[in-house]
Amino acid sequence: MNIAVFCSGEGTNLQAIIEAVRGGDIKARISLVISDNKEAHCLQRAKKAAIRAIFVDPKEFSSKEEFEKKIIVYLQEENIGLIALAGFMRMLSPSFVQNYPNKIFNIHPSLLPAFKGSTNAVRDTLNYGMKISGATVHFVDEKLDNGPIVLQRVVEIDEEDSEESLRQKIHRQEHIIYPLAIKLFAEGRLKVEGRRVKIS
Ligand code: GRF
Question: I need a labelling partner for 156 at 20 to 30 A (CA). Which of 86, 98, 176, 177 fits?
């Protein structure tokens, strides 16, 4: 199976996935990394791992549809079976999502549905005074941060936690559950039944 990772920033989740593939945990290939941000470090990480890394400039297209059409060309070239959104700061259109039913993952730094749609879920969690938080890997559907949940991990929030320390705690869990979710998908062990994802 061929995987594409979409990212806009640092790419630590991409790195965790690269390492899980390299270590043989995930029996699949990362064939493509796509970013909407030319400066994104995730593109460098991909190149370093000899993965095809492409910057698709949203400004070059007259509409979101045209932008996504271009991305779909790359996905078809690489015969992609799973798209993993990893810090991709752009919502995909319903028609894009319908092209890949139950074949797109996203990771969100909260226990969804808490802090759904938040662009700074970690800060919002802290400001809300939450005592726990965590990370969620879910399938992507037409609504933001909404599709069936694949895996979640909890972290405890201490009084001393800052936004940065909480972000790090959550990231550590993300780096465990994202590769694991992809491994389960690649092995055909996920079954979506309504909102519930069964793992065999
Ligand atoms: C992660 O916290 C993820 O949950 C969110 O964006 C962040 C991306 O981090 N969607 P990185 O670029 O993988 O380091």
Answer: 86
| pLDDT values of the chain reduced to their tens digit, one per residue, 200 residues | 999 999 999 999 999 999 999 999 999 999 999 999 999 999 999 999 999 999 999 999 999 999 999 999 999 999 999 999 999 999 999 999 999 999 999 999 999 999 999 999 999 999 999 999 999 999 999 999 999 999 999 999 999 999 999 999 999 999 999 999 999 999 999 999 999 999 99
Total-model pTM: 0.98
Nearest residue (by CA) to ligand 1, atom 10, is: 87
Query: Ligand 1 pocket: which of 6, 7, 8, 13 to mutate (most atoms <8 Å of CB)?
Result: 13
State the residue range of the domain holding 95: 2-109+136-154+175-199
Residue 33, beta-bridge partner list:
5, 53
What lies within 8 Å, CB to CB, of 24 at 6+ separation is none
147 and 195 in contact (C-beta within 8 Å)?
A: no
